Amino acid sequence: MLRFRADVLLRNGTLAHQHAGLLAAHGLVDVAIEPRTLLVRNPTAVDNVLGLRSWAATAAQRGALDPAEARPFEEQFDDAVVAHRFTYAVTFFLTAATVT
């Protein structure tokens, strides 16, 4: 699911993993990467912003996932919400460098 999202649903979904190398390749120095993790416990906020609950259905509609596999993803989402154990985390990478 995450691979589909990174490769298909997000523009430049894997670019953060390439930043340091790109900066260094263009002559920048002192390249530093700082991870920042956002933790969200409010499922409505995550679903409203990211459409998290629909990721599997979207993957199935685009042929990247068997439709029978999409429903369990939604059920796990719903079960976590009902049980008050929903947690979503995403890590952002802040990349900085010095121009010489």
Query: How can the largest sheet be summarized?
Result: 2 strands, antiparallel
* Mean of all residue-level pLDDT scores: 91
Shape: elongated
Query: Reading side by side through the largest sheet, how are the strands ordered?
Result: 1-2
Can you write the helix and strand succession as a string? HHEHHHE
User: Structural class, please?
Assistant: alpha+beta
Oligomer: single chain
* Unreliable segments of 5+ consecutive residues: none
Number of strands: 2
Overview in brief:
By secondary structure, this protein is α+β, with helices and mostly antiparallel strands.
Task: Write the topology of this structure.
Layout: H1 2-9, H2 19-25, E1 29-40, H3 43-50, H4 55-61, H5 67-82, E2 88-98
Helix pairs in contact: 4-5
Q: What does this protein look like?
A:
The structure is a single chain. This protein has 100 residues and is an alpha+beta fold. The protein contains 5 helices and 2 strands; from the N terminus they run ααβαααβ. The chain has helices at residues 2-9, 19-25, 43-50, 55-61, 67-82; strands at residues 29-40, 88-98. A two-stranded antiparallel ribbon has the order 1-2. Helix 4 packs antiparallel against helix 5. The longest helix is centred in the C-terminal third of the chain and has 16 residues, at 67-82. It is elongated and about 55 Å long.
